[in-house]
Write a structure and sequence with these properties.
about 15% strand, Rossmann fold, alpha/beta, about 180 residues, NadR/Ttd14_AAA_dom, AAA family ATPase, P-loop_NTPase
């Protein structure tokens, strides 16, 4: 089972993914941060080139995920489509799950934890707009989004673990 965790910038996805990794879950960190840091491509300066670089890495991550256990992905290709739409680049959304589970997780907007960072200069208004694009694109692609409740990182991780286990997900040490 390959499950996506999506959400606008500053919603706590990376902290949640890191916590789940310490609990024995197979996770794939956000590739867009890697592309920004390693290649200097950003969704606000070079959206199309950035999306292509991210898509290539996401495809490799997906191909490397084993079918013997569950993998959680910090973002997926649909996030790229949402960012491109946000940049006013027309994108036709494919109605295909691409090997991911049809149920995906979304970290909702949360003003109390939102922060701008040097590697993520989006404003709160940008985050609100991106949240709307993400929800739109995931729905068009055939996904059902399930909101991760607000709370501490351990509380959110507890909820995600219960959600995953209720769907038969396996930790990496279970395979």
């Amino acid at each position: 089972m390959q499950v996506i965790l999506t959400g606008a910038p500053g919603t706590g996805k990376s902290a949640l993914i890191a916590e789940l990794a310490t609990r024995g879950w197979d996770v794939r960190e956000e590739v867009s941060r890697q592309v920004i840091a390693g290649e200097g491509l950003t969704p606000w300066d070079h959206p199309a080139t950035w999306a292509l670089a991210c898509a290539e890495r996401m495809g490799r991550n997906r191909a490397a995920a084993t079918t013997l256990r569950s993998t959680l992905f910090d973002r997926a290709e649909m996030d790229l489509w949402a960012y491109l739409r946000h940049a006013q680049i027309e994108v036709t959304v494919e109605s295909a799950l691409m090997g991911y589970a049809a149920d995906a997780l979304i970290a909702p907007l949360w003003p109390d934890i939102f922060q701008q960072e040097p590697s993520r200069p989006q404003s709160w208004a940008d985050a609100v707009a991106l949240d709307a694009r993400l929800r739109e694109v995931y729905a068009e692609a055939g996904f059902t989004l399930h909101e991760v409740p607000l709370g501490s990182v351990p509380e959110r991780a507890d909820w995600v673990e219960e959600w995953l286990e209720a769907r038969g997900a396996l930790r990496k040490d279970a395979a």
